[in-house]
């Protein structure tokens, strides 16, 4: 119960209770996007990378243990080179 003097300070429809949900939803969407990107790079590396000189194993381990940063490194460093060389 709100004291009489503060009654005008609070909205009638409790719309302020919904506000904390938006940062949570945005954070969840970013986390899901990061996970899906990581999974895509891991599958891409495991399926399409060549086995020359253990490069596939090294990249899979980097993506697994460094997580999102490893996936970013693979995406920007190795994947364009592989696409250029092999067309895959």
Explain the overall architecture:
The protein is an all-alpha fold. The chain has one domain (4-86). 68% of the residues lie in helices and 0% in strands. The protein has helices at residues 21-48, 55-86. Helix 1 (21-48) packs across helix 2 (55-86). The N and C termini lie far apart (66 Å). The model has no long low-confidence stretch (mean pLDDT 83).
Rg, nearest Å: 24 Å
Give the count of helical stretches.
2
Tell me the strand percentage band: under 5%
Overall morphology: rod-shaped
SS elements, strand count: 0
Q: Main sheet?
A: none
Mean pLDDT: 83
Unreliable spans are none
Q: Please, how many domains?
A: 1
Regarding quaternary structure, what we see is: single chain
User: Ends: how far apart?
Assistant: 66 Å
Protein structure class: mainly alpha
